[in-house]
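Checklist before submission:
- one chain only
- standard amino acids only
- sequence pasted in full

Submission:
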Amino acid sequence: MALKKAKDESMANVVEQIEQENIRHLNDNVVDEDGIVRDEPLLAGIEYEGEHLRTFSYREMNGKDEEAINKPEIRANGGRLVNVLLERTVMDIGGKTRKELGPKKWGELIRKLLGADLDYMAMKVRQLSKGNEITFTHKCPNCKATLKTVVGIDEFDVTPFNGMYTYPFELPGRGYRDSKGVIHKTGTLRQMNGEDREIVFPQFKKNMASATTLLLTRLMSFDDGTPVFNDRVADMSLRDREYLQELIKENVFGIDTNLEITCDVCGEDISGQVGSSDFF
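Returned file contents:
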C-alpha cells in the first residue's frame, strides 16, 4: 500500500511539473549578465523562409527607444507603436537578428508576427523596463469619479494559441458577390498580424464600420481563389459581417487585459478594458 501511494504521489508530481511547464507566466524574466532575456517562447511563432521561429530575446527600453515611440505620428497609431518598439528592443527571433537580416527585412519580420505574439512581447519588454505594476486611470461610468487602479502584469491571464493560423468560414447570409455577380460563401480567415494592425487600427478611431470592412478584406480568402475587394466586402450583409467578426473573436488568443474592479466611491462594478494606463 505504501509503495502504491509513493508511486501515485510521484506520478502526481510529474503531471504537475508538466502542467507548470506548459503554463505561460508573465513574471518569468531571467536576465543574463548583459541585460538580455534570451529565448523566451512565443505564443504562436511564425513560419519564415522554411523555418518555424518559436522564441525571441529582448532587452529593456532606453531613452532613445522612449523618444522613438513618443513621436506624434507613432504615438497616434497603437499598432505602429508596438512594431517600432519591438524593432528596437527585440534582439533576435528564432535565432534571426536585425544585423543578419538588415533593418528593412527585420521590420518586415516583426510585422509578419501575429498580433497576440507582438502584444505578449511588448508586455515582456514593458515588464523588464518599468516593473510589474501598471496604473490604470479611468472614470466610473456611474458616479464619474476619477479612479486609479494598480494591476500586476502577472495578474493578466494568457489565453493559449489554438494552433490555427487560419480557420474556415461559411457565410450564413447572402455571401460575397464578386464583380461578375457570382456568389461565394466558403473560405478561410487568417490571424491578424502586425502589418494588419498598423494599417487598420487608425481607421477604428475614424469609422469603426469602415475599419471592419478593411480588416475583413485583408483577412478573408475564398476557397476558389476569388480576389477580395474592399467595396465588395462593404456590400456584404450585416449578418455575414457580424458572423465573421464573431469568428475572429472566437479565435483570439494571448494576453487578456480586461479588468474587473469596484469603484471605491460608489461601489459600482466596472469591467472591460477601461481607461488609459502608464504602459509606456
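Reviewer check: DSSP finds eleven helices and 16 strands in the chain.
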